[in-house]
Amino acid sequence: MELNDEQYSRIRDILYDDWGIFELDQLKILFKSHINSKRRFEKIKTLPSLFRVLEKRDILGPGHIESLNRVIQVCAPRNVEINNIISNRTGSNVYGHGMPNSLHSGSPIRMEQPGSPQDFSNYPIAKIANVIGCRIGSDWQELARALRMPEGQIDMLGVSSLSGSHIQLLLNYHYETYGTSWERWRTELQRGLVSVGRKDLSEIIDEILVFHPFNYVSR
């Protein structure tokens, strides 16, 4: 079921008050294939400007709950008012898309395999990327080398904004190197973090996956 205009506008207003540059960079990568214009992509500097672009392309709006949920998961995944608006309208919530029982029972939520490098909506993966991106600091290049990324690619990422570099680093590593093997992705990422002296971040990944588990898919 769709949101009505008033509900959609209220959610959008809440999101406008709860975003940062890091979240904006993550969303731009998530919706990059829909923006489909380098010039337009580079001009997006705020969340409202991203909304305007996606609304014009009929990607966001009252009838596009799935796309709106992706934005919510990045900017305000725990906002009670937003979750209530969506739950009251659709009988679902911003996390389970109609699976509230599994959330309350503590059982793992089945996450569908992302379909492309731009699809970063898997909540545990997004949360891990967000934490590492915020805390890795100057160690990110050593982490990239530990993950065996080519030096040319590291140099290319280095000219980007700091937050955007971190997100792109994780996206490229996950999708290009390990694809559908979630367990191997997690193992190699944690090994890389420990090798650059960031055992603290490796332990945080374990904590995230305790509360936000996903089913691993082996090759």
UniProtKB/TrEMBL annotation:
The record's section on CDD domains has:
Death
Note the coiled coil stretches, chain numbering.
none
Q: Which InterPro entries match?
A: DEATH-like_dom_sf, Death_dom
Task: Give every Death domain span.
Answer: 125-209
Q: Which domain of life is it from?
A: Eukaryota
Gene Ontology biological process terms from the UniProt entry: signal transduction
Q: Which protein is depicted?
A: Death domain-containing protein
| Organism of derivation | Dendroctonus ponderosae
What's the name of its gene? 109537323
